Amino acid sequence: MELTPEKSCAECGSKITGRADKKFCSDQCRVAYNNRTRGEKTNYVRNVNNILNKNRRILEELNPTGKTKVSRNKLSLKGFDFGYHTDTYRTKDGGYYRYCYEQGYLELDSKTVLVVKKEVK
Q: How many CA atoms lie within 13 A of 70 on its CB side?
């Protein structure tokens, strides 16, 4: 009979009994380990998604008809973050539509943006 080496929990170091491929002594240790090791990446992604969703909500709120002009200042006052978008479309004349999912905007000048809704198929 071959003896298998004792394994210890990847989170707390306790002795593991049971299946040969088991890495944790309990569900609590497994969850704690995963939260600790994945936390920073998960928090970054969550924060970016929150910003994108907030931007989308702001554009949607200010654009009930599907196409409207809004002051850049009004977007900023509502908390819109111009540094985050999900898609960019370049126009023939060199302008850029920036989208947060299906809601987008085009900067017309330094003070005004055209808010649009992309047709989603």
A: 24
**Structure confidence at residue 93 (pLDDT):** 93
Q: Given this model, what pLDDT does residue 30 score? A: 94
Overall pTM surpassing 0.85 (yes/no): no
Task: State which residues of the chain have pLDDT below 50.
Answer: none
Residues in the chain: 121
What is d(CA 55, CA 80) in angstroms, rounded to the nearest whole number?
5
CB atoms within 10 A of CB 34: 13
Q: Domain ranges for the chain, please list them.
A: 7-117
Contact 69, 89 (CB under 8 A): no
CB contact at 8 A, 92 and 76: no
- Of the candidates 71, 56, 55, 54, the one whose C-alpha atom is nearest the C-alpha of residue 114 is 71
> Around Cβ 24, how many Cβ atoms within 10 Å?
20
In this predicted structure, what is the pLDDT of residue 2?
A: 57
What does the angle CA 84 – CA 86 – CA 88 come to, to the nearest 5 degrees?
Answer: 100
